[in-house]
Design goal:
By secondary structure, this protein is an alpha+beta fold. It has a domain of 207 residues: Glutamine Phosphoribosylpyrophosphate, subunit 1, domain 1. Helix content is 31%, strand content 24%. A 10-stranded mixed β-sheet has the order 2-1-14-13-3-7-8-4-5-6. The chain has a 5-stranded mixed β-sheet with strand order 9-10-11-12-15. Helix 4 links the parallel strand 5 and strand 6. It binds N-hydroxy-L-asparagine (SD4). The site of N-hydroxy-L-asparagine has 14 residues, from strand 10.
Length: 331
Amino acid sequence: MELKRRTFFKWGLTGAALSLIKPSQAAQMVTSTFETKINGPIVISTWVHGLEANKAAWEILSKGGKALDAVEKAARVTEADITNRSVGIGGRPDRDGHLTLDACIMDEQSRCGSVAFLEGIDHPVSVARRVMEKTQHVMLVGEGAYQFAIEQGFKKVKTPLPEVKEDWKKWKKENKDLFKKPEINHENHDTIGIIAMDANGDLSGSCTTSGWAYKLHGRVGDSPIIGAGLFVDNEVGAACVTGLGEAIIKVAGSHTVVELMRHGMTPQEACKAAVERIISKNKDMTGLQCGFIALDKKGNVGAYSVFNGFNYAKRTNTEEGMVDALFDRKW
Ligand code: SD4
């Protein structure tokens, strides 16, 4: 079932019932949870598909499992959802009709693995983990990533899905100018980025996407690039991001957030500063949505986006639900 984006925040174990609240109220509620040292594990994930992803992560985190296992399992949930048009095998193809996937993973030892421009394999995040654990490399792309996945026992899948292919054919007929700027808004840019801290206090993160719908064949976004789509430093914190990859890569977005936290900013301040950096580097802001989430070693959370409409899912021992990010400007 495709979940519709809604703003709600559920106070899971505190006794209150699920509450439906307006975005402005949500922002206030979140603000009240900043700077709070949380007890126990925490997972946060971009967009509403993060709710289901967090559930999977929580099965591991709540039993004292590792953040690395949690963020992989969580990403696999979204990758397996064939109704999702921007992550995994249900994603939209590139301009030429190929569904190419990008993903990465990073753990508390700063080990990282990544795959990009990967076609025909259903769980890129797990291939990325194999790159991290089984090779001396960080990143494999395209045909080489595919061959590695097959060698590692991953199954070949036929993509894109037939109904997605039909949409693409229609798009192709209607769009003669294949180099025009894409329409990017809060409804079509839905990478999942997940960051978690386990009961041991260790951080890990993952990120997975089919990227910019109808992109040029060969295009790779920020999501599989360590430091752009995701960054983890176990001494400091972790960050990940969703949005226009080209803008995020230009400022090494997630690394910037973590580095700003290292120099004393809260996760919230760091996410805001990274968004401001992106804004300062781009004259044309048309459709330039980017949304960061970040977590520090004390369990403080922050989130900030260029435009309104970005939200994330949060799960702790006491909270479960969606939170609206603060933002720079309205669409
Ligand atoms: C990309 N950042 O490929 C990804 C897309 C995205 O939500 O975030 N979608 O540029």
